[in-house]
Amino acid sequence: MGVMKKLMTTIAAAAAFAGSAAHAEDVRIALVVKALGIGFFEAAAKGAEEAAAELGDVEIIYTGPTDTTAEGQIEVINSLIAQGVDAIAISANDPDALVPALKKAMDRGITVISWDSGVAPEGRQMHLNPSSTELIGNTIIKLAADHMPEGGDVAILSASATATNQNAWIEAAKEVLPNYPGVNLVATVYGDDLSDKSYREAQGLMASYPDLKAIIAPTTVGILAASQAVTDAGKIGEINVTGLGLPSEMAGAVESGATISFAIWNPIDLGYAATTLAYNIHKGAATDAGSEIPMGRMGTATLDDTGAAAMSDPFTYDASNIEQFKSIF
Ligand code: RAM
How far is it, in rounded angstroms, from Cα 155 to Cα 229? Predict the structure, then answer.
């Protein structure tokens, strides 16, 4: 037996053993992420698998490019169209660049939704936000401001410059900034959800702004890299790293004091909800404004006039509760 054939047989046997062998009649839902290798999306994939097990006739294809670019996602989308998947649920690296490829998918009868990071309305049937954009924008500023009684300089370390979700949160954060007198936003930089680039951008912020009091990273990759950069620079206690992170990845930073607190919603629930929505839309659920689409144990998504819905509020983690959550996501 050739090595490849042997490998394939082993994989098939393992799949059958796990009880997850695909069936021809399954609804094939592709969960397309910003990039592979990001813990947040791996947690969302767990939720997608949970939804698939519950629905019974779903096969999840977890896929994405190797870096957070729209070009990479377009290649992935074209390959999914060629494979004839039933649905695409995507977290977008760009709101507009993916529209032509996703329109082509919809023309071929593929259900298309975005989740986490949105696609412009003409490129998808609905979008699932993790939470209200205004609430997230205010939360990330408040997390920093609450620990700066005397005010001071803060900087944002974001993901990619075209990420729909981070850009919307940053815009919402800037809107409420006047409510935090003395908090001065000096820069916004982009680490592209790559650990090494995010680390270097955090170092750059520390070099350019010696009085920096907080780095706000509304990305799980960015917050982790920035907490490491602040630790390595010996600036724990001087610069508080906050934003959106995973308890499993941030436990060390909270313990060391590099991060006092941070927030996030449950990424497992988000992947579960996105999968259930894609399934129900594929099965015929309406997607016009006001539609209510069931999302299993997560309740119902009610679409607004842009075809978007929100899941749940973010939760704040700090030294008092991180132990409880770090093994979950
Ligand atoms: C990163 C990604 C993702 C975002 C989280 C908070 O994992 O940028 O899109 O929602 O951070």
Answer: 14
pLDDT tens column, 223-268:
999 999 999 999 999 999 999 999 999 999 999 999 999 999 999 9
Q: Which one of 93, 135, 165 would you pick to mutate in the ligand 1 pocket, going by the greatest count of ligand atoms within 8 A of its CB? A: 165
**Residue 59 near ligand 1, beta carbon < 6 Å:** no
Give, as one character, the DSSP assignment of residue 159. Answer: S
Separation of alpha carbons 52 and 29, rounded Å: 9
Q: What are phi and psi of 254, to 5 degrees?
A: -70, -40
pLDDT at 14 over 50: no
The reply to whether ligand 1 has any atom less than 6 angstroms from the CB of 64 is no
Residues 6+ apart with CB under 8 A from 316: 139, 143, 261, 262, 263
| Distance from the Cα of residue 75 to its chain's centroid | 20
Q: What's the whole-number mean pLDDT along residues 56-77?
A: 98
- Has residue 9 got a pLDDT over 50? no
For the chain, what is the mean pLDDT? Answer: 94
Ligand 1 atom with minimal separation from the 130 CA: 10
Contacts of 309 (CB under 8 A, 6+ apart): 126, 127, 128, 129, 293, 301, 302, 303
Task: Specify the pLDDT at position 3.
Answer: 44
pLDDT for the residue 7: 44
What are the structural domains of the chain?
22-130+267-312 (3.40.50.2300), 133-264 (3.40.50.2300)
